[in-house]
Design brief:
The complex is a heterodimer. By secondary structure, chain A is α+β, with helices and mostly antiparallel strands. Helix content of chain A is about 45%, strand content about 15%. The two termini of chain B are about 20 Å apart. The relative contact order of chain B is 0.28. Classes of the chains: A alpha+beta, B mainly beta. At the A-B interface, helix 8 and helix 10 of A face strand 6 of B.
């Protein structure tokens, strides 16, 4: 419903006054978190400011550029604009993608690779990859190969961000944490013992200590067991 | 702030129920241990029919403390009890699930 409106505007060059007028019109149609429960004028002014800044920034605008920038302004969220900026800057080159991980594990010849999607019941990871090594040396080698792949991806960069490693000294269970993908490299005995597939496929681990965190933030007035009366706060 | 003679709960299914801290691993003469430190502990109470028995000396890593943990971003984390997870010499947990 908004798209044909924008397409019509992309062809002509309206004056700022016209832009203000048009800005007011699609208010009830456009979804913006700012407009919930606020008057039209309250929302129009920051949106107009955003529109004006983008209008002045574009020196020789092609129609597609105007189309894009107005669409961002009309969707009412200069805050979606900022969040997309943040995502692009924090998407790390050193973090491994799930396909790259599978390729590396195939090269290293790891046994019994299982990928478990945990995005639904786990907010800090999207995939858990569990792989087996034939010996402790093999398990260490799997970890080294993944780190090497991350290093290769960032060849020539000034700062290298590598996925974090745990358990490298004893070669029984090594965890590599690269953002949304977490790789567990175990040997066969450890895999049978810890049984990670059961843990991650049967729903979240039952007791999350989030409750403790909520309790921890509550301010508790200390009990005054001494005979001396407590001093009043100013 | 866990020191020797401190009793800690066990936060996994390894079979032990309560530990008493004996020593803090790390630099010599260290007074207190916080979350993330490895301690040497003796099992004071164990669940029946478990591989771990009472008065067995094991290592553990501290996971919850009543003393607050301060992070650099200003976040403070404080629990209601002291708890640890039983580990072996290499650092791998002895139990299979963390509670």
């Amino acid at each position: 419903m908004i798209a044909p409106y924008l397409a019509r505007q992309a062809t002509t060059f309206p004056s700022p006054a016209q832009m203000y007028y048009r800005c007011n019109l699609p208010q009830p149609l456009a979804y913006s978190p700012l407009s919930l429960g606020s008057t039209v004028s309250n929302v129009a002014i920051p949106m107009l400011a955003a529109l004006r800044s983008r209008f002045f920034l574009s020196t020789s605008p092609s129609s597609s550029f105007i189309h894009r920038s107005w669409k961002l302004g009309f969707s009412g969220s200069s805050h979606t604009f900022f969040s997309s900026n943040v995502e692009s800057s924090s998407s790390n080159k050193g973090l491994l993608d799930i396909n790259e991980v599978e390729n590396v594990l195939k090269d290293v010849r790891a046994d019994d690779v299982k990928v478990i999607p945990v995005g639904k019941h786990c907010d800090w990871a999207d995939y858990m990859v569990v792989a087996t090594g034939r010996s402790t040396w093999h398990v260490k080698n799997i970890a080294q190969a993944l780190i090497y792949k991350a290093k290769e991806k960032q060849r020539g960069a000034q700062r290298m961000m590598l996925p974090s490693l745990e358990g490298q000294e004893g070669g029984k269970w090594i965890v590599i944490d690269s953002g949304k993908v977490i790789i567990h490299a175990l040997d066969e005995k450890a895999r049978a013992y810890y049984n990670l597939e059961d843990l991650w496929t049967s729903g979240m681990p039952p007791k999350e200590p989030v409750q403790d965190l909520e309790k921890a933030f509550v301010k508790i007035r200390p009990k005054n067991n001494s005979k001396r009366r407590a001093e009043r706060h100013a | 702030m866990i020191q020797s003679q401190t009793h800690l709960n066990v936060a996994d299914n390894s079979g032990a129920r309560e530990l008493m801290c004996i020593r803090i691993i790390g630099t010599s003469n260290r007074r207190y241990a916080h979350i993330g430190d490895v301690i040497v502990a003796v099992i004071k109470e164990a669940a029946p029919n478990s591989p771990l028995e009472r008065s067995e000396v094991i290592r553990a890593v501290i996971v919850r403390t009543c003393k607050e943990l301060k992070r650099d971003n200003g976040m403070i984390i404080r629990y209601d009890d002291n708890a640890a997870v039983v580990i072996d010499q290499e650092g791998n947990p002895k139990g299979t699930r963390i509670l």
